[in-house]
């Protein structure tokens, strides 16, 4: 039971007690994810973990909690989502019991809000480094890719409540799904199991992922170098790309990112455009 007991050391918050509760019926989800609360080297993220056997979207669950005044660090995990969504109004496909689907409630300083997708992308990439020998790269703004295919994505939604601004960082990681069984993503997605040929423990991936997210988010030093660490994995830089931006498509060369992760795109007319959260649709490498 979480009694909210925390200690402070400088500006570091250290959580002493974690709580994990079941939102749905107890099942494989419990077997796989319980024990995460025993990790005592996290500071903020994962101080309360709720899991659901089935939910519409973990982002919605976390948002409701945020609006009800929940403190930051809540993690909502689901075994399956009935209305999981991705960026650009897409659906997020994941069969029951295979992958990691979770959302984290954060209450960062408002100036750090734009960096929340970067926290998720970098934490996933560092996590996956431990589970595959292949390079793990990022595609702006927050797709995580291995072997030229997408393995993870994050949807960050923000809002405000009586207790201030919040960000819901929702992430899906393809752990054991067979992308080939889903025609709509068969050509573009992969999973750890597809890459390694072996079933991978969701709990181990989740445990490392929460640790990595917390390590970045809770550390001023890590947050200070976030854009540089994140952009060193960006496969987009230097490439000719098409970006869907609002209703228009912009073609250009990705020259870099600014201090908050916005993409610097030199368009066909030579103008440098600053793009906050468009969508890289095509990467025409070498052309
Ligand atoms: C994307 O790449 O388009 C983002 C995908 C985000 C999916 C995750 S799964 C957990 C959380 N709940 C949702 O409904 N979406 C996010």
List keywords for this structure.
alpha+beta, binds biotin, single chain, disordered C terminus, disordered N terminus, 287 residues, eight-stranded mixed β-sheet, 2 domains, SH3 type barrels, five-stranded antiparallel β-sheet, BirA Bifunctional Protein, domain 2, 7 helices
Short description:
The protein has 287 residues and is an alpha+beta fold. The chain is 22% helix and 33% strand.
Shape: globular
- Catalogue the ligands: biotin
Order of helices and strands: EEEHEHEEHEEEEHHHHEEEEE
Number of strands: 15
What is the fold-level CATH name, i.e. the topology of the largest domain?
BirA Bifunctional Protein, domain 2
β-strand percent reads 25-35%
Strand line-up across the major sheet: 3-4-5-6-10-9-8-7
Description:
With 287 residues, this protein is of the alpha+beta class. It folds into two domains: 6-231, Bira Bifunctional Protein, Domain 2 (BirA Bifunctional Protein, domain 2); 240-283, SH3 type barrels (Roll), CATH 2.30.30. The chain is 22% helix and 33% strand. It has seven helices and 15 strands. Bound molecules: biotin (BTN). Residues 57-59, 81, 84-87, 90, 92, 101-103, 143, 153-155, 170-172 line the site of biotin (BTN).
Topology overview:
Elements: E1 6-9, E2 12-15, E3 19-22, H1 28-33, E4 48-55, H2 58-67, E5 74-81, E6 100-106, H3 116-129, E7 136-139, E8 143-146, E9 149-161, E10 164-173, H4 192-196, H5 202-217, H6 220-224, H7 226-231, E11 240-245, E12 248-257, E13 263-267, E14 272-275, E15 279-283
Helix pairs in contact: 3-5
This protein binds biotin (BTN).
Residues 57-59, 81, 84-87, 90, 92, 101-103, 143, 153-155, 170-172 line the site of biotin.
């Amino acid at each position: 039971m979480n009694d909210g007991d925390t200690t402070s050391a400088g500006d570091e918050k250290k959580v002493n007690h974690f709580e994990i509760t079941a939102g749905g019926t107890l099942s494989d989800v419990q077997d796989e994810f319980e024990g995460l609360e025993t990790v005592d080297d996290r500071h903020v993220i994962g101080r309360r973990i709720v899991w659901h056997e089935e939910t519409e979207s973990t982002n919605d669950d976390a948002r409701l909690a945020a609006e009800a005044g929940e403190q930051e660090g809540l993690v909502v995990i689901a075994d399956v989502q009935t209305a999981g969504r991705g960026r650009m109004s897409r659906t997020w496909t994941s069969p029951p019991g295979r992958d990691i689907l979770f959302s984290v409630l954060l209450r960062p300083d408002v100036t750090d809000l734009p960096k929340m997708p970067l926290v998720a992308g970098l934490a996933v990439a560092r996590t996956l480094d431990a589970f595959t020998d292949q390079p793990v790269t990022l595609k702006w703004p927050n797709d995580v890719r291995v072997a030229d295919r997408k393995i993870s994505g994050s949807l960050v939604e923000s809002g405000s409540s009586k207790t201030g601004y919040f960000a819901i960082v929702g992430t899906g990681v393809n752990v054991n799904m067979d992308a080939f069984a889903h025609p709509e993503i068969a050509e573009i997605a992969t999973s750890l199991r597809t890459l390694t040929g072996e079933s991978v423990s969701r709990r181990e991936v989740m445990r490392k992922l929460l640790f990595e997210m917390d390590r970045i988010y809770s550390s001023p030093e890590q947050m200070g170098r976030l854009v540089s660490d994140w952009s060193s994995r960006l496969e987009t830089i230097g490439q000719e790309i098409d970006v869907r931006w609002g209703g228009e498509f912009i073609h250009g060369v990705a020259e870099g990112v600014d201090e908050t992760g916005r993409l610097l795109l030199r368009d066909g007319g030579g103008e440098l455009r600053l793009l906050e959260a468009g969508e890289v649709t095509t990467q025409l490498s070498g052309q």
